[in-house]
Amino acid sequence: MTRPSEASVVPIRITLDGRTGVTLWATPWEEDGEEWQAFLGVGRRVLVFGSTEEMSEHLRSGEENDLTDHPRWKDLVALTPAELEPDEDFSFDLDGGYDLAASDPDPYTVSELSDLLDLVQRVAEVCDDGTLLRLVEETPEFARLLSDEVSFAGSEGEQRWTAVGEVVEQSWESLLERFAGLIEWRGEPVAGDAAGEAGADSGGATVAVVDDEPTPQPAAAPPAAVVVGEVGDIEEAPEDETEDGEFSVWEVAGILPISVTLPSGTGFTLRTYQGDDDEPIFLGSDLTIDLFRTAAGLEDYTDSDSDHDLAEMLTWPDIRDAEDLPVEPAPEEVYDLRGPSPEAVDLALEIADYCELEGVTAVLTRRPDGEVPFDEWTAAINEIETCVRWHD
Description:
By secondary structure, this protein is of the alpha/beta class. The protein is 37% helix and 20% strand. Helix 4 (107-126) packs antiparallel against helix 5 (130-137) and helix 13 (358-365) runs antiparallel to helix 14 (374-385).
């Protein structure tokens, strides 16, 4: 592991959501028996600037950031905008993930997509975003892509690559949305293609790794940096993915409680959506929805290790492990299916989709505005009742 005297900082270029900017990555180093890495950022946000001039101005401004206490901070401040220009090898086009996954698995393509995931993983570590970290590390296809021991050559390799492509198609958008929440744009971000032209105009500047003599007395590792690996005892700040209470754990996980009233009673369950088609997924299994007659019953169930379809979601641990997570559906998540209405029809169609009730789907898709004859509605709800598993 790199010692403080050898610690380096690398300018990188990031393209995300059609915008391109530059920031700094402090590559991993060891100090006082602990391993560190960091980005130019503040707290749980990485600062990305529209140009190296804007980034250079920020470095000289005296504004505190997560690199202020880096062993090479004094060297960083002295760099010119040209010296801060990222090398081509340190440009990460996250918007291009779809195209890479759809291409043939040649070594260049595999390496490029792996590099994008590696960047996301490192930012998630530094910004202490456990949800994004799990999305990268606990998705088997992503984990294989990050492993140097997995080959994508030959027939078996092609099958692995096909699986990677399917996961990228399903999960890349949610991954980028989560990643974007960790980025704070400063200055004027450049449109994607213009950034490459700007880099070319700079005379082909190479990566500005800071490798001059260290400062006489290197400062301690920045407190905002995250320990990488198990290298000693350190007190880590507790993870708060709710943005100081601005969002509930339900909203962060993307799994919401809903209340459903049927002729047989009122109950509570959970629902989320998956994939590009927003396929509804309910708390349930075997084409059957688990419906609890009390909110407390559902709360107790979420604390268990029961096997159900939502347990396969990467954000389910956020729900299962949360403390004091009340089941209180928002007003728009309360549905009465005893009579037809636009909202009732929408939920009935989602239940029919999840439970594969093709007859219900056929009847209700002809009348999406909620104007369903009561006899047809009653027949549809009676069939929906057959795929509900009640819990007292």
